[in-house]
Amino acid sequence: LHALQVRRATVAAGAFAGAFLAKLIPLILFPTFWLRPQNRTLANWLDPRGRGKLMIFPGLVLVAFLPFADAGDKLSTGLQMYMQHWHFNAAAYSVVHLVLELSSSNAHAYARWICAILLAPLALGAQIRFRDPYQAAFMTLGAYILLSPTMHPWYLLWILPFLPFFPSPAWMLFSGLVFLAYEVLIPYSSTGIWHENPWIIWAQYAPFYLLLGATTFYRQIIGSRVPRTNQLTD
What are phi and psi of 154, to 5 degrees? Predict the structure, then answer.
């Protein structure tokens, strides 16, 4: 992101490929790495001219995967398992699933699709709206974490590096409360049964959303009404 901000496109594309090879999630930031011209019109944003250096990304990814080509579709077995079956410590997904399971036996799949459909415009909109790559990534990764069916505590490591640039009391609070998710390991260690207590999710997400709403309201409504004073400096 720093390389992208200082307009070192080649370094940015190479680092983007490395991040993707380590973890697939950075791919969600592709629109941010799609080097945009100053003009924000849709036609110019979709214009591929001037984005040739970004082709380093698929090239490096292809080279990295070539040694494992013999594995075929087995390369994606773990990803398919994760996308189809894994769910843990998720608030939005849990609410959608709870509503859908009243009328559908395939609520897990439908809930995943709904969360993905909600994430797509939020992520794309944030990356189009915010020209600063740090802010675009912060908003996009935040949306992903909140809509993901699986939210392990270490997922917040994707958010914490941005907080010095974009202070958020809600995310700071959540980074502490999220450790409550490990409560599931207490009965699991003795019984072998993986069972999430609903109150654990409430204890994490209710304070987070309340504080997020309060700070957003203050900054957007009350903060804008506070008169600014000019400070004189020597």
Answer: -70, -10
